[in-house]
């Protein structure tokens, strides 16, 4: 923010359209979350992958589909996670042409630290909003928006959607 500028007050915020309010709230949370994840050696995309791999090993293409990103985007995310020692790749015993991605012990610990950090550091304390109520409303909102959107292939998405975080 430039010197002399002030952040909008509650009265001004109340005049904003809902879409703008959602975008600003998302940006503020994302900025906090990006900082916390960087301390843990993670990115948003990496955390989503670790969350999904907690359910068991998956093929890269299945991960990309579940995260609603391209195969190339998933490949870059997995390379970063592999360098950090958070995931390992191994041949699929059912199909030797395919490789499965699995979370490592270090990946499980990183995921657990991120979950704790989200609970402890990225919260709604001081807002007067109950976390469980907001979560319920956000799930309802996102579900409704997904139902209303036209079908799109993952190739056209930037990776900001998807499962988990």
Q: Can you describe what's shown?
A:
The structure is a single chain. By secondary structure, the chain is mainly alpha-helical. Helices cover 56% and strands 10% of the residues. It has a domain at 17-118: Arc Repressor Mutant, subunit A. The protein has a three-stranded antiparallel sheet with strand order 1-3-2. The model is unreliable at 153-165 (pLDDT under 50). Residues 15-147 form the HTH marR-type domain. GO terms for molecular function: DNA-binding transcription factor activity. Residues 145-165 are annotated as: Disordered.
**Cα-based radius of gyration, to the nearest Å:** 18 Å
Q: Number of helical segments?
A: 7
Give the class from helix and strand content and strand pairing.
Answer: mainly alpha
Proper CATH architecture of the domain at 17-118: Orthogonal Bundle
In which range does the helix fraction lie? 55-70%
C-alpha end-to-end distance: 28 Å
Based on the structure, what is the oligomeric state of the protein chains? single chain
- How would a crystallographer describe the biggest sheet? 3 strands, antiparallel
Which runs of at least 5 residues are low in confidence (pLDDT < 50)? 153-165
Q: What does the average pLDDT come to?
A: 86
Organism: Amycolatopsis dendrobii
Region (Disordered): 145-165
GO molecular function: DNA-binding transcription factor activity
Domain HTH marR-type: 15-147
